[in-house]
Protein: Alpha/beta fold hydrolase
Organism: Jatrophihabitans telluris
Amino acid sequence: MGAQAERAWSAVSVTASDGVRLTVYEAGPARPEQTVLFVHGYPDDHRVWDGVAERLVDRYRLVSYDVRGAGRSDHPTRRSAYRLGQLARDILTVAESKSAEPIHLVGHDWGSIQSWAAVTTDEAPARFCSFTSISGPDLSYAASWMSHATSRLRVAAARQLLSSSYLAWFQIPVLPDLFWRSGLGTLMLGRPSTPSGRSDAVAGLSLYRANRTVPLTRRPARCSVPVLVLAPRADTAVSRELAMEAPVPWVSDLTVQAIDGGHWTMVEHPERVSEPLRSFLAAHGRNAQATSVKRRKPRDRPAT
């Protein structure tokens, strides 16, 4: 966040279900019924949401965290620690640690992919009052969309396959790791290259390697949580057609909106995300289920 907002954040440690320590950040008024949880993607950390958070901190209690393998959270070395089911449990753990009431969930890139896994669990209706997805489709929805693409969408599906070719590259041993360690990866993304950022990128490769079979093995699950999909028009990783159409058969309350910008629009033009997001949160905040999640609240520890 900017300097003023950064001072308002506090950090604590929350322990995930498998013992991994997650560093969680929060700011804003203590209004649990109006809590927004942000989940970042790859190869980022919680700071990717700074610009959007600055525009919401006056009204909402904001929570973000460094996902496992990123930032100040633990970097487990076991590839199995990055499987989608565990990532979804991380989201639920952080959500439960910050509010007994349903919260708003916002995800980008891999943060959105794992959020889809969380909002399609049996616990989701009592845990989340809305979900906003940016540049990260549900993997099983995407696989279904690709396999059932009509003639109108076959060109779009072919373009998406080409855009997703980097997924195969990330499966190769050693070379992608060297690519990130050398600093070439962050240079190509147009971002400052730091030792911590490079190590995060290497650790995060396990996201792709641990979940490579998910599109083929995970059956699409219906989502009863209200969903907003924001689809950047110039996103080179996720096409608008995939982002906006893949969820249609599976989400009962779906809103889709194209926005200007590329894959990291929320960094480059945060107002293009914060404005439609603010409207969506306002429309669904009062409709959240009143049922509290009656579970023991995980105890926070000061972040180290």
User: Anything to note?
Assistant: The chain has 15 helices and nine strands. The first strand starts at residue 10 and ends at 15. Confidence is low (pLDDT under 50) at residues 1-7, 287-302.
